[in-house]
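Supplementary Note 3. Input sequence used for the single-chain structure prediction.
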Amino acid sequence: MPNFGIVAQSFKMSLQNIKANKMRSFLTMLGIIIGVASVIALITIVQSVSDYVMNQFSDLGAGTLTVSVNGTAMKAGLTSGDLKRLETVDGVEGVSPSMSLSTLVAYEDEVYEEVSVSGRATIYFEKNAERLLYGRMLSDRDMTGESYVCVVDQKFMETVMRGDTVLGNHIRIAGYEYEIVGILSEDESMMSAFMSGGGDGAVIIPYTNVMDVSMVNYVNSVEIYYGTATESSILEDDLSAELDNIFNNAEHAYSILNMESLMEAMSTIEGMMSTMLGGIASIALLVGGIGIMNMMLVSVSERTKEIGLRKALGAEPLRIQLQFLIESVVLSVFGGILGVILGLLIAMVASAALDTTFSLQPNAVLLGLGFSIAVGVIFGWMPAKRASDLNPIDALRSE
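The predicted structure, written as discrete structure tokens, is reproduced below.
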């Protein structure tokens, strides 16, 4: 077994040989650099985007189940009595109807067509209290259907009010005059981006008012709030049982969106994508390994006399093999380090371009470096073995 001194000397000689052939060594490492950079960049970018999407879903669906009602021929939606039945299900902290209203909004002498108008219940405002900037939220006394008050978001304040005093001011919605009692920060959740058509901002009024204007006594979309101690999958099953009773077990009468289940499925898909992309990028590492083997075989051919002389002077085959193997590993490790740096830079640029948070993935870095070391050992072994097997007499006779 070679001692540390022999390994150190072999390492020094490997560096000298690499320096003596700088261009060839760089071109040899290029395959490793590209391969490792591809692995690092792809995995890191996928993970950063996945983290961003998962955080959006987490912010949107933490402690919430969404029930969408298609209804039946006999029952179009959920009545106030049905909502109370859902509130009695174990684990439910609150039920908030979610209703939208397609109408125009007027302020002073101008009419705005791109304002998102929605109706919500008290529990919604309690669960989103952190969004309140000024004024107050809507309360139970505003849900009688006779209270014409609303809250608006920052975008509405900027595009419609344009610097006017907001709180206490009045706007007209569907022909009714509403007093603005609160200002909310903009809802940046993913669901809001999907549902909102409000290029001029958003206005929220009591859901009972939306029902009156729409002349309906039922709702088709409900958010179910539950506590951290409640298992969402169990609650989903309990809600399904209650909804089956409400709709007399009719098929396709409703659907329940469980964000936690969706996030688990997305996490599984993200893992599969990372594995697939890592496998594809590893092909470049394979090409880089072949390049290293080719370079080392050329090096063995060029240094045949040197090898013969060293063996004639008593150098053991294992020491010859060790020198060439170390040289191969050094090339691959240097290429791997440069590949890691390049891959992280690419991932940082991509994260900035995609407006996501850069997330360093230690596993990806270790994978890239591990691959590069493995490539150096595997593809460097054959040339090293060939060098150690050379007959010293034949080597010294070679031209």
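The CA atoms of residues 92 and 226 lie 5 Å apart. The longest helix spans residues 259-302.
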